[in-house]
Amino acid sequence: MKKSILLVIVLAAAAQAQQAVPCLRLSKVTDNALTQQESTIAKLTFKAQNCAVLHLPDRTTATFESLPGLDTSVMYFLFDLDETPASAGNQKAGELSLLLRLSPSADFAVGEHTFHGLLTYQVLDSSGNPAPETLAIDIPLTVAPHKPYQAVAPPNNGAPQEESGFVQGLKTAGMVIVGIPIFIVLALVCTFTGNCWEC
Questions:
Q1: Taking the model in full, what pTM does it have?
Q2: What number is the average pLDDT over the span 124-142?
Q3: Domain layout of the chain by residue ranges
Q4: Which architecture, in CATH terms, is 23-144?
Q5: pLDDT at position 64
Q6: Res. 180 pLDDT band, cuts 50 70 90
């Protein structure tokens, strides 16, 4: 009697373990390196594991935890459809992609983060009918600090460049150093020869 009860418990646990394996698994995350105060569109790719995910975009949803300083919005879902229909009027997909806009504020912490969410989609149940399934997802994020704006000098396009104050000062000093001796020589010539210029 004890052995048969133990066998029933083991079989029930095995059946529950088989049901616990979700149809989709997160296989790839792209563009998950973020910069503060800039928006990035991340792409999450999910692959079907020997099951039929139905192409029902209106019944596919994603929700994410609310993190202070991180604005999140689901843009849309992409289904990679199989050629054979899964059931009457429904197409099945072997892959599902989620495009997600992520915008960290200046207050969002720099460094490594894990972003949690839930993806709900439709699968075929054992009797061939659509049934909802939910997958918990963890998205690794890396956040870099915002790069401050750097002014870029416009091209001069052949226009004359303004001289710096240092260069202008050198020119003035050179004119004084050269002009004073010339003025002294001319004054002496005028005094001794009587040949003076008239203004």
A1: 0.63
A2: 90
A3: 23-144
A4: Sandwich (2.60)
A5: 94
A6: confident
